[in-house]
Amino acid sequence: MLYRHLLPIAVLALSATFSQAAELSSDAKSAIPKDVQQLIVVDYRAMQNSTAAMDLKERVLPPELKRLETALKNAKLNVDRDADVLAFASFRDSSGQGTRIVGIAQGQFETQSILAGFAKSKTKPIVDRNNTIYSMGSAGMSVVFLNQTTMVFGDRAAVKVALDARDGIIPNFLTNGEMVNDMGTVDRRAIWSLLDAKGTQTMMKSVLGDAAQLTDYDTVRNRMKSSRYTMDFENGVKFDLAVVMSDTMTAATCATLMKGMVIMKKSSGSPMERSALDRTTIDSNSGTLTVDYSSSDSEFAGLLNSPLFQSVVK
Length: 314
Known about the structure:
Elements: H1 6-10, H2 26-30, E1 36-43, H3 44-48, H4 51-60, H5 63-74, H6 79-82, E2 83-92, E3 99-107, H7 111-120, E4 126-128, E5 131-135, E6 141-147, E7 150-155, H8 156-166, H9 177-183, E8 191-195, H10 197-208, H11 215-221, E9 224-232, E10 237-245, H12 248-268, H13 271-278, E11 280-285, E12 288-295, H14 297-303, H15 307-313
Antiparallel strand pairs: 1-2, 1-8, 2-3, 3-7, 4-5, 5-6, 6-7, 8-9, 9-10, 10-12, 11-12
Helix pairs in contact: 11-12
């Protein structure tokens, strides 16, 4: 699941300097189903401008996202050159088949040239209402252009659900009031993500590690409503996580659990890991747990090879 890779996605653009925000257009938002478990949005242009970021991406990009990106490249859609923003949405499948992932790319795409390439390769499209879906090779991936600046891609079933959302057949992301409100607090950042209650619960269990085995975690887990995180690399590395709880007491309890986790990690960590934990501030306020971390680029780069980092991203 995407939420297991909170830090890997966030560090895709290590050492890049961001001057633009990763904002989604209305067309892109409407193509995301309402029942989103996690939404991740990345300033792809800035990431492409950093050699370190691209090398790191190859190491930590989750397999399901790497498969989507590879399918785009194999279809010669020139995402490296033309994409400005990439988004990945994990959503619950109403058919009961678990979760699906759909990708969205925003940029200035040479759609006429791309469609001519599909025609030349004799790729037979599928028409779904007013939408034309093209296969991207033998991997079972498909792509559809909403307009010249927005494409939706993923496995065919996920793309069709996205089109149902965009065409008003099923509710889309814009009708998810809580997530839309949360998005307004993060979408000016270069890398940001939103998680629903279930995604938040699983992500927090992974982050807490052994501390999640404590009895108190079972008490707070079902009171986690949503979460969001951002990363900024303009002046070193800055990571901010906010977890919205149902009440002030639950947020305070979870903050205590996380502080306990930090103490456990410090007792067995290297000097570099202990330094990183010292730079991490955990607090709670008005029912929201907050985690803030900051460091220089070089310090963070060193942390990536540490057992502490590997235990988080595995």
